[in-house]
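Structure tokens please, single chain.
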Amino acid sequence: MKEGIILLGHGSRREEANQEVKRLAEMIQEDLDQKKEEVPCRVAFLSFGSPDLEEAVDSLVQNGVERVIVTPYFLVTGNHIKKDIPEELERIQQKHSGTKMILASHLGPHPDLIGIVLQRINEARELI
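Here you go.
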């Protein structure tokens, strides 16, 4: 079963912010490519950015993807995680009934984030 990944960001009116999410998706794609995994990774935005989630899913399905893993690039469990994203995926699922949609967990309080947060704190300390 051909698989595809969507990194879903919130989206911003500031294109610079959207570019950061796009760069992360590119980095994920580079990692997959280095591992010789033939898995396309796309970016999508819930609002204020392009492409939106439906456009990203459409793109993957048009390229033969049968299973889509949507990975929310969100830190906390808010309304978008609990309500908006699942509802949007359900709507898109009806359009692509032959495609399996999987919603991955958001970032949340994952233990691996501790190292990143501590690194940022130490970087700030060096500025003093």
